[in-house]
Amino acid sequence: MAIAIPTDVKTSDERFDRTATTTCGYCGVGCRLETRASGGRIVSIGPALDGPANEGHTCLKGRFAHGFTRSPDRLRTPLIREDGELRPATWEEALDRIVAELERIKGAHGADALAGLASSRATNEDCYAMTRLMRAAVGTNNIDNCSRVCHSPTSFALRKSFGLSGATGSFTDLDQAEVALLLGVNPTQGHPVVGARIKQAALRGCKLITIDPRRIELADYGQVHLAPRPGTNAAVVLGLCHVVRRDGMLDEGFIAARTEGYEALEELLAGYDPQAVEEVTGIPAADLEAAAHLYGEAGSGSLLWGLGVTEHKYGSEVVQLLCNLAMMTGKVGKPGSALLPLRGQNNVQGSSDMGALPDTYTAYRSVEDEEVAASFEAAWGAPLSRRKGLTIPQMFDAAVAGELKAMYIFGEDIAQTDPDTAHVIAALESLEFVVCQEIFPNETTKFADVVLPASAFLEKEGTFINAERRFQIVEPAIDPPGEARTDFEIIGEVCRRLGHETGWRSPWDALDEIARLTPEYAGVSRARLGRQGLQWPVRPDGTDSPTLYDTVFDRPGGRGHFAALPYKAPGDAADQDFPLILVTGRILQHYNAGTMTRRTGNATLVDRDLLEIHPLDAERLWVKDGDRVSVRSRVGRIEIEAKVTERIEPGHVFTTFHFPETRTNLLVGQSADVNTSCPEYKVIAVDVRPMSEEPAFIPVVADVS
Amino acid sequence: MTTVSVDGVEVEVAAGTTILEAAQLAGRWVPTVCYDERQAPFGACRVCMVGVVGSPKPLPACTTPCRDGMEIETEEPTARRVSRAVVELVLSELPEAPAPHTELAQVAERLAVGEPRWGGAVHRRDDDLRHPYLALRHELCISCGRCVRACDEVQGAFALTATGRGFEANIAAGLDAGFEESSCVSCGACADTCPTDAISEISLVKRLKGA
Prior knowledge:
heterodimer; A: Rossmann fold; 24 helices; B: Ubiquitin-like (UB roll); three-stranded antiparallel β-sheet; 6 helices
């Protein structure tokens, strides 16, 4: 509804010389933003009142954390390594070096000795261009993107259970849900605009069930909070399913008409009564039962999860179990009953949808599918490999083994964010040639032979896909600084110089090509996306799909699949040497590796990573609030400041990974999801000790008088 | 459905629709100051007064629901006089005219309210510029409550409160210790909704001051 005087009067005033409506490039919520710039710098950003995901709201990252775009240390010219040092270079020099090295290595070792990374921070068109660079211009399927290390288990499991790799509904389902169950997700920190939406829903009467080893803020607004031991999510969900079945809360009609495989699950569930689950998870049986009844008895209920589910050894299986829970109670494909994975990055959904994966083209169609591969061969005019490529962790292994010789890394700081930092660095050091396409020097560019200055989300055009499967338009608010270029332009130029002409004049040509080659996105076009975007699948006439599976699932036979998957212990466990379990995650003020937010006023609000520790553990270890502590795991050691808080359970500690000086990921080992190799960032056995052993209290000596 | 006429334009509206919403559907302008579509109607400022045939006095458009057959006159003289007087009184308390881009300035301009006729006390200057992003200039606060409601109803941080009474009425972040010492999550919803720039982005304040 239009209002008499737009709240957003600031867009049309003379303080600004350039305005645009774009889509936020921080988390996966997909807030639409109004940007206002003056003299080539962003001056102010506000929310678009008609943004479907944000409805006139943003968080402090989307609204305020834009100053990084003109930070003095932004990469403004290409750099090439000479005598061991990176020096400024011209684009000609940099591109010549890239082409010469890629061709040399391909000639000597074959195309599969090269690998590329697309970025979940970049646009669909950038990612798609990157797949074309690796597949058509280089000739390998060695392409992956950073969703590997966050939501690949979600994608895998949703395809197994329901058919399509995306949320089953929209954020608006949260406004209608009678109950929302949050597992391993902390939206008021990680996805603040959805967090605010859930909080408002709770204040209006929506009941919340929060399940997290930490007492997250939304737990204070909910009915039941369950704090399982890290790594025991599967037992929690199986326990919920057990109670739903035992206490007659099944939607038997739905199970009979819409699903398959229930019998096998039923048999498995027998072993997960609340007492058995309490043994494994530490959750009181009565609390588990209360949660199961809240969800099971509600007329509508939505499930939300995040990296607290996926970044585990059996993360993908837990997502399948969540799908079971929804199907048992018939809570899928209806208003208020949606499964909403909260995607970590702005385009986690899109980068994978675009086929920036070693085994699929767009819309998750296998590289081994002859018909699909042939359609891309025809469109691209190049022979394409039918052999699956390497995932990110496999790339590192292959590099260390000497099989992979070169990497083209676009928009990912692998030396900061990937697990087992020492192994990543060994891989980078083993490579003969490394290209980084980046906006800032980072931990990974220290190993690069060529660094290309690229563009931030506020400087490019194209589309992102948010956590609701919504394609949304990205428009430039300002131009890239100095000699920096847009990623789309750079990748197209590299293709051209490798002898592969894309024929694209702009990202919109690439979007048209994606729509032409992908039935699920057939009706997507720049004009149709407009201000509101479209949720895939989009039919050729432009009809989109806010809700999936209202009548059938997208699987053979149209039935949803129950997966009978038992609980299995996580990859790491506390023992005498490493008695605490570390969970890692992020906070409101910063974003992942902090590349952007650390270069804004957000760093004034929060300037360091902290280790959260329960008062009981702190007292036992003689750690006071604000003390520096040493944290040692089986693979590494860091030093960090302690924060004593009751938000965390005894036996667990928590920290973020936003500041490179902390190097949290030195502690993370090689344990990873069994199906997708997403690293187990959430269960790390550690030993915490104070750096200096000052007693935090004076021990009371027994009174013997 | 309910049918009402707004300045002679007939519109059909759902039950519970307010006069303000009906006027918007009819494409007619009603001045507002304390209204924001993202928040529940508040009815505090008395600027959205309209005439309704048969009503002995003007009614606030933002909180009055439509009744079937209602004849609404957005520019009814008494209502308009009240709106102007309210805006003029609000302006008279400010130590400086609100910046031209603000909603208050634009409403004043459209209602042709010029320099207030009344002198007398104006708000004491009191600027809190401690937060990295948010400036709080108490002297520009008109106590419309939009920031408090944005914080409560949109964000849910409950960081802002209305303080003082009468001429001293204002807002406070937390217990008046500033945004950073409150439960503020720095989302900026308050700055976004503020119709006078009493809360605004600090970068824009610095620009205004030429820094």
